[in-house]
Amino acid sequence: MIACTEHAYIPQKDIELIRRRIECYGNTKEGKAMNRKAFTLIELLVVIAIIAILAAILFPVFAQAKAAAKRTADLSNTKNLGLAMIMYGGDYDDNPAPMMQGAWDWPRHQYIIWKDCILPYVKNGGKTPLAGGAAYAGTTNENGGIFESPTWSGSWANASVDDGDGSNLFGDATTRFPRSYSLNQDAGLNEGVGSLNNQAGVIPWVAYWSWETPYVTGGGSYTTLNNPANTILLTGTEDPYPNVNAPMMCYGCANGSGQAQNGCAEANPQLTAIRSVGNALVDIAYFDGHAKMVNGYQTLSKDMWDVFQAPGWNTPAQWPGYVQIEEYMKGYKEWNP
């Protein structure tokens, strides 16, 4: 009897021995590997279907996680900008950085705004003014840093607004920064700080006409606010200007002709000049240095704008009372997802 091993010698003429040799080979590691069955087409299709189902389940989860991460980054930007404003105040007797400085009849890219004032404290994004007051043209100078919101794509939209500065300007009105965040010009009006007629509260404006002697409108110390932990310092916006106020919660981004309005970066009739980060939430930096994500309607009902106790604002159901603003907000998907 011939041993059943892989290396046994089997003459070609012995058919029986060849058969045994084949049987023996089938019992070896190599033979078993050759006899293994492959996947059938049905089995492959089932596996592919399972993978597709898992992908359909997981991709939305990944998208939600990515959106949540962007909102967190936006909130971090908001907080850091608010802290930079407070640091500036610490160096200037608790006075905020001016909203803007310049003549009304200058090209707006020549204004010096609050972002310029806090740039030395931030050192993360933005540009310094060019010699001679020139604008940064084109999009090659984009460097938003924490001045740029990660939750939307319009931070470097066209900035040629109202003043004929040209068509190749982008970002906010200065062209030195992206448009993403603006200061609350109402803060302090409840306390009687600043100028109610000019709607300039604790944050000053050094704004004048070029033939006038420069003067300050509004302004006051951080310490004059009764509730800094509940008063908006800055929040997100589509507007290219440095300031926002409570009524802008219901200023739509498109007019009846389908054109962009109220400084918005896009002509979307479902959006407003003040920008939500999703789910009707806004990121807010407060005057005490903390930052929080809150529902847009709560900024009104809790008077976070610090204006609805001031004369002319303190009748909720009449414009510009907060109930009237809320009613207009209900017409926008931005606040009613």
Summarize the structure.
The protein has 337 residues and is an alpha/beta fold. The protein has helices at 15-26, 29-35, 41-91, 114-122, 296-301, 322-329, and strands spanning 100-103, 112-113, 181-184, 206-208, 232-236, 243-244, 281-286, 291-295.
Q: Main beta sheet: strand number and arrangement?
A: 5 strands, mixed
Seen as an oligomer or otherwise, the chain set is: single chain
Could you state the order of secondary-structure elements as H and E?
A: HHHEEHEEEEEEHH
The average pLDDT is: 87
Q: How many β-strand runs?
A: 8
Helix/strand/pairing category: alpha/beta
Notes on the protein architecture:
With 337 residues, the protein is an alpha/beta fold. Helices cover 28% and strands 9% of the residues. It is built from 6 helices and 8 strands. The chain has helices at residues 15-26, 29-35, 41-91, 114-122, 296-301, 322-329, and strands spanning 100-103, 112-113, 181-184, 206-208, 232-236, 243-244, 281-286, 291-295. Strands 6-3-5-7-8 form a 5-stranded mixed beta sheet. The protein has a 3-stranded mixed beta sheet with strand order 2-1-4. Helix 3 (41-91) crosses helix 4 (114-122). The chain is elongated. The termini are far apart. The model is unreliable at 1-5 (pLDDT under 50).
